[in-house]
Amino acid sequence: MNSLVDKYNIPGPRYTSYPTVPYWDESTFSPEKWKESVVRSFHESNSGEGISIYIHLPFCEALCTFCACHKRITKQHSVETPYLESVLKEWKLYLELFNEKPKLKELHLGGGTPTFFSPANLKILLEEIFETVEIAEHPEFSFEGHPNNTSREHLQTLYDLGFRRVSFGVQDYDPKVQKAINRIQPFEKVKEVTELAREIGYRGISHDLVFGLPHQHWDAMEYTIRKTLELKPDRLAFYSYAHVPWVKGVGQRGFDENDLPSGEEKRKLYEDGKKLLQELGYIEVGMDHFSLEHDDLYQSLTHKKLHRNFMGYTSSKTQLMVGLGMSSISDSWYAFAQNVKTVEEYQKIVEEGQIPVVKGHILNEEDLIVRRHILNLMCQLETTWDIQNSFPELENALAMLKEMERDELVEIEDNQIRITEKGRAFTRNVAMVFDLRMMRNKPETRIFSMTI
User: Fold this and answer.
1) Which pLDDT score is estimated for 249?
2) Which of 9, 113, 24, 126 minimizes the C-alpha distance to 64?
3) Omega into 19 within 30° of 0, i.e. cis?
């Protein structure tokens, strides 16, 4: 396995979209085309599966130096109300595009730190949105909670509004690692909010763990995993730290790169961590995710309903996902669009009565075919093709997979590719073979994190 990791550990996308953001063709994109795609998608899907909303709440009181999210660091909570007013105005601009009341299937609050906002302000935001929609049967409402500032009132308020899932960012319990990433967060605090959530009635509690952080070593990682398992969250994300300090504004210069684990050390963190999680009863779902058997994420995998989008893996899908807030990304299936990336510009454009998209991509027929194959690989670990969903470079892609087949990472039979159990760690590598836009225009500089 070590030699395989050395061989395949190369820069590559995480495939929360296809085409990936660096390969969006902005020359064919416009706000008007984006709105047309939203109308088309809404018309096709609202009466059935409904729509999803993602709300980006960007404020944090302190900078975590491992974080690559778009955020604004401030301790001034006076920013809450003006920002939420802008989010509601943006939502009204989308409502003007719809010919009927939206059916809301999924809602996710991300950040930043959603629990930076007071429970009262979150309630105002959500109740105003809920007045404009029909809530679907069995909705999936979730939010990201910072263990240090998620209060009982936050948990109860959001539970009363229909939220049943919460994800707590744990990362690592080693004090030296926490200091390096500026995320001081004792186990006792995580235990407190996890047990509070469970007591209130949340049925989907998730913890995020990250490997590859500065100063991490296996003994401490094992301690973090075993302490996490004392709390038995329903699901876990076990992410590789994406070191991308060249991306403007991500704040990943808070430690020396020599403090990061070597390739061999990081490989041990991943392989031994995955093995321990499975020994402790967690089942690997997709890539980087693990869940207990009762959790919806595992159930969606067994029923082939697992989906992947800009929020990561989800247990259901909607064709239209509207992203609200600065830097938020929307997906109509036929197009992607990203909002402007600063709070001030976002609020200014919304005040002018415009949907604040700054860039995007209109998918052509080939994009749609390739997107489906990559989604199949990322979610179901297999894909098939026929005349309708083939593409010109398919034979080239299959030829490139022959080396992976010899390494027992994939199985190729007739018109089907399956990723083996041994190949799960290399799912991103398999998907890259289908990435026609990247293959035709390989980057001259590094733009992605390492695949493992």
Assistant:
1) 47
2) 113
3) yes
Which residue, chain included where needed, has tokens 């990433």? Answer: 181
**Which among 369, 424, 425, 429 is positioned nearest to 394, based on CA atoms?**
369
SS3 readout for 145-185: ECCCCCCHHHHHHHHHCCCCEEEEEEECCCHHHHHHCCCCC
Residue 262 burial (CB < 10 Å; 0-12/13-18/19+)? Answer: exposed
Instruction: Determine the pLDDT at residue 281.
Output: 93
Backbone angles phi, psi at 50, to 5 degrees: 90, -165
Under 8 Å between Cβ of 212 and 240? yes
Could you give the count of Cα atoms lying within 13 Å of 430 in the half-sphere of its Cβ? 31
Residue matched to tokens 């105003």 = 128
pLDDT at 356: 98
Amino acid present at 289:
H
- DSSP lists the bridge partners of residue 143 as 109, 166
Residue whose pair of structure tokens reads 């590598």 in the numeric block: 429
Q: Which residues of the chain have pLDDT under 50?
A: 246, 248-250, 252
CA angle 417, 377, 423 (to 5 degrees): 70
* Structure tokens, 347: 């609020």
289 CB-side CA count, 13 A: 27
Q: Residue 251, exposed/middle/buried by CB under 10 A (0-12, 13-18, 19+)?
A: middle
CA distances from 103 to 31, 127, 221, 309 (A): 24, 15, 42, 19
- pLDDT tens-digit series, residues 350-369: 999 999 999 999 999 999 99
**Residue 329's closest CA among 53, 32, 45, 35?**
53
Give me the count of residues in the chain: 452
Q: State which amino acid sits at residue 409.
A: L
Tokens of 341: 């990336």
**Number of neighbours of residue 118 by Cβ within 10 angstroms:** 16
Alpha carbons 144 and 109: distance in angstroms, whole number? 6
**Secondary structure, 3-state, 68-93:** CCCCEECCCHHHHHHHHHHHHHHHHH
Contacts of residue 377, defined as CB under 8 A and 6 or more positions apart, other chains included, come to 383, 417, 419, 427, 430, 431, 434
Q: Among positive and negative, which fits the CA dihedral 296, 126, 208, 153?
A: negative
Token pair listed for 127: 């109740």
* Alpha-helical runs (H) found in 201-247: 218-231
Tens digit of each residue's pLDDT (9 = 90 or more) over 58-102: 999 888 888 878 899 999 999 999 999 999 999 999 999 999 999
